[in-house]
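Throughout our pipeline, every protein is held as a single compact record rather than as scattered files. Such a record has a labelled line for the sequence and another for the backbone structure tokens. This encoding replaces a full spatial description with a residue-level series of whole-number codes. For reference, a complete record is included directly beneath this paragraph.
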Amino acid sequence: MNDKTDAHLSRDEGLPEPVMEGPGLFGDAAPPAPAPVSQPQNTSPYRVLARKYRPTTFDDLIGQEAMVRTLRNAFALGRVAHAFMLTGVRGVGKTTTARIIARALNCIGPDGKGGPTADPCGVCPNCVAILNDRHPDVLEMDAASRTGVDDVREIIEATRFRPMQGRMKVFIIDEVHMLSRNAFNALLKTLEEPPAQVTFIFATTELRKVPVTVLSRCQRFDLRRVPQADLAALFARIAEKEHVRLSENALALIARAADGSVRDGLSLLDQAIAQGEGQAEIGASVVSDMLGLADRQVVFDLLDAAMTGKPDQALALADAAHERGADLGLVLGDMLDLIHTISRLRAVPSLRDSADMPEAERVRGTQMAEALPVPVLMRAWQMLVKGLKEVEMAPDRRAAADMVLIRLCYVADLPSPEDLVRRLSGQGGAAGPEGNAPSALSEARSEGGRPGGQEAPPPLRMVAGMSGGARASAVAVQEAEAPLAIMPEPVAEPEPQGPVVPRTWREAVALVKDRREALLHGHLRNGVHVISFAPGAIIMRMQPDLPQDLPRQFQKVLESASGMSWRIRLAQDEGEPTLDEQGAEIIQFQRRTAQAHPLVKAILAVFPDAELGDVQDHGLDEYGLPPEEPPELVFAPLDAELLDEDERPSDPGLSID
């Protein structure tokens, strides 16, 4: 083969042609060197923004002022701990903070003579090596993949050797809560008494899964979520460095979607820059489409349509958002977040002037806060919370979201509790959504409370346990109508002075409660039937399951409180019902009375699905019994003589002179 053939084969095989160096074999001049092939200027792979703009000093950390201040003071005073526990949600800077601490411990300064400092230089060999993740004395371990005790034993073995290059050996264990129980136990002794040249830095998102024995050996720092305003400002600075323009609304959407995580926000910002390539300014619509969200104004319009009872308009807005790619479940979540914002604006009016409040919330949110009452907002909040659960469980998310919107629109037409009270009382015309006015209440108010002039039932004090608006209406009616809601204010009884002698069985049982004998009090009110009671002498019957020493305990309490001797005797007579049985009987009687009350009948006529719950009478005592009249005590003269049994008068109307 000739030289041309060899050169051709070389080109065919992708090999460069041989270049002759120096003079030729026969003395001819060397050929000129071929021109170098131009290479692309940027051959390094692209680095995402989360890595490119990772903080390298404490000053670069945002939103963690308390931790930075503590660490700076610790380095300034030479009181740096040997173990740190960094906890917080994902992307707030736990691993980044650990690397900054490692650099601060090993920095030697530009001249090579520096010591530990809170402001590492970034140019010394140790700083450069740690920044490039190749320092031999800074070891990072992912506990999510290395969870066993053997992995921890490797760390313990490495602590026995002095650092090879730096000043301190730093062990950074990420997601430390993933370690097994045996691995934690193996680490305890070394963590409590580590060598002087060793520092442990743990990072976790699940602090509750870390044993308290490990937490007690570490200095703990809770990295909080970064505020949305700080995130938006950071993203604006990074976008300017990347020569990209984003609108304020777009930055606000990214900051809100980041949920306090810097890394999540930078990833979304990276995606938004790629999404809006070629645009002079990336607007909120681009970010909304990228996140699968509806436009903020659309959420306002959707909530306004639902609160004004316009289902056709609400469904049209939902269909348009779905066609643009928005997830209707996320749209309902945005409506829930908007209701929360409006409720805060109504509860705290000063928030309307806050700089952190976006312009849309400040303008339209304030208008809706002034127009929507608090009960309506609370009702919408509860319905959306329940609706979101239904959307997650439904086979068709869009259909479930439509049903939630329709339900919200029709509930907006329901009258408020105040309007319902006026309608039930006959002052506001028809009651109920259909406009049918019940006449039972009007008839009850005429002719003494009942049709036909019959005697009115006793006053109804309070009705609880009804569902929805029925309960609110009943309570509002009771508060508005004095004859139906006479609730005596509790009067504080003065504390007894000196010995207390109970005059009735109920007072004796209540005295036990006042003496803080809870178990004895429960036995007396639930399982003891009194046969006869007199100050100093009690005859009673106990149920079989009660303690046998109950009479002795009862006697001890009574004698201690009254300062007199008591005699308690057990008998097998039937006796009176227990206090709880007597109270239950009265409650059943009042329940029947409440069911027959015209007001309750009128409410149940408007709300057929409502049920009458517990009936409470604030005039009863804690046993559910009306106040009792103590027995009248008749005192005989000092010179009176005792009569025999047969000499005593049998007529109760007779008196003894």
